[in-house]
Amino acid sequence: MTVGQVAGLIAAIAFLILVVFIGVFLTKMVRTLTEVNKSVQTMTDDLDVISKQTEDILANANTLLDDVNHKVATIDPVFKAAGDLGTSVSDLNSATRNLTGKVKKTAKKTATTGIVTGLAESLMNLYRGRKNKS
């Protein structure tokens, strides 16, 4: 064998080794991509299930929210009436205070007038009593 043939043989062997390594690499890569594809498919299926469950939960939440809004709208007049009643009671308390104040003033005036009148009557009786004795 000549030197050129030996060099060609070495080059052919090196090329063969390179092709075998590339083949092994590509085979492992195909296996990896297959596993990735299976994982992605599993995740997609899981996401579909989660998406469906989320839609169901949101639909139930919307129904519940509508129900709560309806009930709150039904209760609103009760709170309005309670507020109006509170205002009325407050107004009644104010009116009662004012009336009580007026009654107190009148009672004081009456009491003062009554005391003065009573004192005057007592003095008159006393004076008449002395006048009758003389």
Automatic annotation (TrEMBL):
Keywords: Membrane, Transmembrane, Transmembrane helix. Pfam families: DUF948. The chain crosses the membrane at residues 6-26. The keyword Membrane applies. This is DUF948 domain-containing protein. The lineage of its organism: Bacteria, Bacillati, Bacillota, Bacilli, Lactobacillales.
